[in-house]
Amino acid sequence: MSYINSKKDVAMLPRLVPNMQLLVMDEAVSVVKRVVQAVVQLHRATLAWLAAARTTTPEMEQVWHIITTMKNTILTMIDHDNDGVRTQAIKFLEAMVLLQTYTEPDSVTREGEFNLDHVPLTLKVARPRKLEEEAKMVLGKLLAFQGSIHISSVNLMTCMSSLTIIARARPQFLGKVVNALEILHGNA
């Protein structure tokens, strides 16, 4: 089960990730939106790379540090001035929750999907428990964002869709999602 296509792909991560970090803070909105989409894949590939390694190198630690910095940057983009950037941030946060949580027997998953099930507990660079805690915090952010009064209709639909996908893929969060949707319906 390989989540990275080749050794060439892995070799590119240390060169690619720092450049993406610069682009995620670009002034051009179209660039930022595309970079946020790409970071979803980089996040998954980097975590898979770390999980597959027998030992971690300083280069791997540096790449993970940059990925973590980009995750935090994108997390703040949920309040960005541009609606399209907020939409991409919502989709990124959805992917982050799915990547950084464990599946359950009732989980609806795609074949070959990488998630926390594939990360060894012994991984020191990206500790699974810490990743799971971060995912739960991100889910809380999404739930709060859905209920905010300044959300646009497009982002409300995107957020509701993302929360529904999360609830199907991670039934442990179903109660929170249903509760948030009921509150939203009650306020409508």
TrEMBL record:
GO terms for biological process: mRNA processing. It comes from the Eukaryota. Its main location: nucleus. InterPro entries: ARM-like (IPR011989), Symplekin/Pta1 (IPR021850), Symplekin/Pta1_N (IPR032460). The keyword Nuclease does not apply. The keyword Calcium does not apply. Pfam families: SYMPK_PTA1_N (PF11935). It is found in: Nucleus. Residues 29-185 form the Symplekin/Pta1 N-terminal domain. GO terms for cellular component: mRNA cleavage and polyadenylation specificity factor complex. Keywords: mRNA processing, Nucleus. Gene3D superfamilies: Leucine-rich Repeat Variant. This is Symplekin. It comes from Portunus trituberculatus (Swimming crab).
